[in-house]
Each structure stands twice: as structure tokens, then as C-alpha cells.
Amino acid sequence: MITKNKFCLKYKLEHQAFTALSKSGYINIKKVGYFVMVDDGEIHRLQKGIHYVECPYCHKKAINITSKHYDSCKEYSLDKDRILLYSSINLKNRKKTEGQKEAQSKRLIDRFKTEEGALTKNQIKKASITCNSDPTFLEKKREIGKKVQNREDMKKLHSKISKEMWKDPSFIERKEEYVQKHLDELQYSASRARTFLKKTSKVHLQFKEKLINNGIKGFITEYSCGYYSIDEADPLSKIAIEVDGCYWHGCDLCNFDGDPRIKSIDKSKNAYLTNRGWTILRIKEHDIKSGNIDFNSIKQIQNKKRKDNIEKIRKSYRLGVLKVKSFNTDTDEIEWKPILNVVRHNSEKKKIYDVYTNTKKVGVTGDHSLFSFGTNCPIKVSDLNIGSVIIGEENYNKISLSVIDKVQRLNEKYTYDLSVKDNENFFLASGILAHNSYSISGVSLDVDKSSKYESLKNNYIQEYDKARDLAKRSIKIVKGLKQPRYGVGISSALGPYSRPGTQSRRNFVSGFGGGWS
């Protein structure tokens, strides 16, 4: 079985002739998805002069051959490339004028307004949905699109159109107005697009390996900061390391001017990060390849900056001005809330997981809670499944859904908990909303989930059980002494160190919690 297109090309059969013959039943077809399939042997069922006529020059099979076709083929019959020449002449003769194109467009628009046109429109829509729901079709479409876009003539055409557009003052004015109106959306779209790009080059990976081998930790690859992505960033010390290729970013030593667009972006990024307190270190490609990098100086700068920043964080925390983004589940708005406390837990006996979403990642214990999207309710990590939807935060204080892609077990020793006022939740650096695990005021928000109060709860249960047993034994002693009421003779029954007096029934049974009355 082959497709209709391949069948027509192989036997030089016109598509219109194929359609007419298949409708009449002379060619058996089979529909597979959106493909029309036909058996290769169906051509033998057709007879020349009955089902089709054949051009003696180009051997094209059709329902009828026009005199114009004969004349064109006869004129170039002695030429080897007569079919190609005929095609070019035929296309030239068939080329429509602007008036004909406008008339054809008007006829189509008028037809779509009729009932038959509405049916055709629905059929086209259904066919489009069927095609775009098939992964193989989409993959082929992408491949063809890439090939077309990478053609030299298409690149030149796009470049020419772009230059002509940017020379038009009215276009520039419209573009500026659009950018000003939709600035937040465009910035968000650009930052989101960068998250899907794999920008780590071989030189970058080589530098990362050397960084780890020299004992420098804490750097995150492709760390997002506002509109920009940093090659290697340590958020705690606020050090940004940019790995610059000599050819693209420019290098005086290697005699490269660099790409002016990339150099412009570098300047903007430097200004953006510097204004936000970052220290920027730019490492050149030739230094990485030759090994002329002073990793000791990087380590010293990192340690110094970390100490300074940690002290600033502690000072802000003591003053109560250290805040974190939190989500108000009643108003569905993101708010800045002060951090009440931070606690580190030894989680060796707990299961810790890395939760991967479509764009983010977070490491949490299995009994910790994230927030379900839509219901705004906390949900345990152990209850999450692939495909579950949780609340995440996009740039510029916008709530978005995050779909769980993978849950992977980790072997970490320590976990950290934050306590946030009122909302009892906070956004992590990855942009995922997490639930408070405890409250600093001494009252646990969720004792079952809080590792801080787990031991306290167990001790309380044990002490309560001991007190109840002791109370039962004491009552038996009192009954054995045949005392008429509580308080009489209890002092001697409990020993010489007990205080004299009468104890109430409630305080007695509850384990001497209230003391003697």
C-alpha cells in the first residue's frame, strides 16, 4: 500500500483523474487516519483509452488532454527536459493577475457564508484537528518547517523583509506602542522562553567540572534572575560567573570583535545584576582551555561575600524585616509576609523527595505539604502522583499551575522549615508554594507533619500513660485502706514526702498535674 501522492507521481496520473476514478469504483482506496492509501497493483485495472488518455510526449495520464498541452509538449518533445520545460511554461500561463486573485478570494468568502460553505469549513476544521493531534504528522511538519526556515533563500528573504519593516516609521511607532502596553507580558514570555533553552556549551560544562574539582560548591547552573539567566550563580553570596566565548562575546587577546547584539545584552545584564547587589565575574574561553583560572581567589570572594550576606540576613531577621512571598488563599493574591523563624531538622530517618514539575524542581520530605491547584488545599508529597497539578508562581507575581512530571528519592540529611505569618505558606526559590510545617508560638499547625514536635508528642503520650497508671495504683491503695473519701489517709499512703491536704478528683487522676488543693 502506498499513498495517493506517491501513486500519482509513480504512474504520472493526474490527481483529478485519480479522484474521479476512485469515486467511480475503478480504483480501490483505503483511508488510514488522514492518509488515502492505494494498492500499487490498482494501475493494472485501468485501461488506456477507456479510463484515461495518455500524452504521447510526456506520458501524462488524465481524463482529457487539451490541445494547449499537446502543443507545449510537441514543441519541446526533442528536448531531454521537456517535462520540466512544459511545467515552467504551464505555470507561467496559469499565473493569475492581481484582479483574478481578488475575484477568487471574494468568491471563496461568499461561498463560506452559504450553508454548503459552512459544511466545508467544518470539514476543514475537523481535518486540521485530526492532523494536529497526530504526533507523527506534527514531527514531520516541524522537520519540514526547519528545513524551509534554514534555506539560504528563505533567510535572505526574511532578512530583507525585516530591514524594510524597520525602515518604516509607522511600523516603528506601532511597535513601540505595543511594547509599552504589553511590557509585562513580553518580559514574562521572554523569561519563560529562556527556561526551555539548553545553553550550556562544552566550554561551560568544562568550567563547571573544574569548579567542582577545586572544591567550590553552592553554584547553580543557568540560575534565573529576573529577565536574565546566569551561567553559574551562588545566590547566598550573590556571585554571578559568566562563561564568555571569545568569538561571540569579543576578546582583545584573540582578536575577536564579538557579536554586537550579544555584547549589548552583556552590558544590560551587568547593569541589572550590579544594581541588585550581585558581583559579576566573567571568565574567558581561552582562560578555561589554557587553565589560567585562579580558583582560590573565587573561593575567597565567595567566602567573604557569604559571611557579609549571612550577617545581613541575620540582622534583617532579628529586626523582623526579612520577608518572603506568600499566597493568600482567600483573595488569590501574592503577598510579602515576614519570616517568624527558621528551623533545621535532622531528617536521616525521613523520606526526602525531589519533586519535578514541567518547569521547576523542589526537594521536600514525604510528610510535607504543597498546594493543590484549583482547590488551594495542602496536599502531602507522599500523596502526589505524576500528572498532579500544584500551585506555582511565575514571574511578576502571577499564579500558574505546575504539573508533576517525576518524584525521585533523595539521600539528604537536613531539611529546613520556615514559619510565615497569617497565610501559613511560602514560595520556594523554585517558585513552588509550600505549607508551613510548624508555628513558632509554641503551637504546632499540624502536629502529624511537624518533625519539630514529633518527639514532644511522643514524650507527652508516654508521660500521660505513666501518670494514669500511677493514679490507678494510688486509687487501689486508697480503696484497700477503705478510706471513705479522697484526701483522707492519702498522705500516709503515698509516703512521707507527700504533702498533707486534700486533692481533687480531677487533679488526682490526671497525674498530679494541678498539685494539691
Entry summary:
This protein has 517 residues and is an alpha+beta fold. The chain has 18 helices and 20 strands.
Keywords:
four-stranded antiparallel beta sheet, Endonuclease - Pi-scei, Chain A, domain 1, elongated, disordered C terminus, Endonuclease, Chain A, 517 residues, 44% helix, 20 strands, four-stranded mixed beta sheet
Q: What order do the helices and strands come in, and which of them pair?
A:
Elements: E1 2-3, H1 4-11, H2 15-24, E2 29-32, E3 35-38, E4 53-54, E5 61-62, H3 67-75, H4 82-94, H5 98-112, H6 115-132, H7 135-149, H8 152-167, H9 169-181, H10 183-195, H11 202-213, E6 220-225, E7 228-234, E8 239-244, H12 246-249, H13 260-274, E9 279-284, H14 285-290, H15 295-319, E10 323-328, E11 333-346, E12 352-357, E13 361-365, E14 369-371, E15 378-380, E16 389-394, E17 398-410, E18 414-420, E19 425-427, E20 433-435, H16 454-480, H17 490-494, H18 505-509
Parallel strand pairs: 8-9
Antiparallel strand pairs: 1-3, 2-3, 4-5, 6-7, 7-8, 10-11, 11-18, 12-13, 12-17, 14-15, 16-17, 19-20
